[in-house]
Design brief:
This protein has 136 residues and is mainly beta. It has 1 helix and 8 strands; from the N terminus they run ββββββββα. InterPro entries: NA-bd_OB-fold (IPR012340), Primosome_PriB/ssb (IPR000424), ssDNA-bd (IPR011344).
Length: 136
């Protein structure tokens, strides 16, 4: 399954008793539609995510980052300390693609992926590009 959403908190790395590391974070996905009365309905779904392949990715996964995730979804249910039944969606991730990632540094926003942008051959803009209204 593929989902696209924004991180609701910074990723955390947990080390288990068997020395394996897992990156945990949460994302929110938004959907909107119009009901029969024509009212716009917005719906947000939250996913608890776990990534087992490499813990190094955690430093890129900060609150607000837009990510595309590939993996499998499963549900979980539990009885809370208050005796109430709870349910949640978990997403076991096999691939992560960053769509936007910005870290705040001294009040300025800088892209984490600047190195990667150069590697994929982003052309340098010049003065003549400013008049161009093409979307790419």
């Amino acid at each position: 399954m593929n989902i696209i959403g924004r991180l609701t908190r910074d990723a955390e790395v947990r080390t288990l008793s068997n020395k394996k590391q897992v990156v945990n974070f949460s994302i929110a996905t938004n959907d909107n539609y119009r009901n029969k009365q024509g009212e716009r309905i917005e719906q947000t779904t939250f996913f608890d995510c776990s990534y087992w392949i490499s813990s190094k990715v955690a430093e890129l996964l900060t609150k607000g980052t837009l990510v595309e995730l590939i993996g499998r979804v499963y549900t979980r249910a539990w009885i809370g300390k208050d005796g109430e039944a709870h349910a949640g969606l978990n997403f076991h991730i096999s691939q992560i693609k960053l769509h936007s990632s910005h870290k705040r540094t001294e009040g300025k926003s800088t892209s984490v992926n600047k190195k990667n942008d150069k590697e994929i051959g982003q052309p340098k803009s010049n003065e003549s590009d400013k008049d161009d209204d093409l979307p790419f």
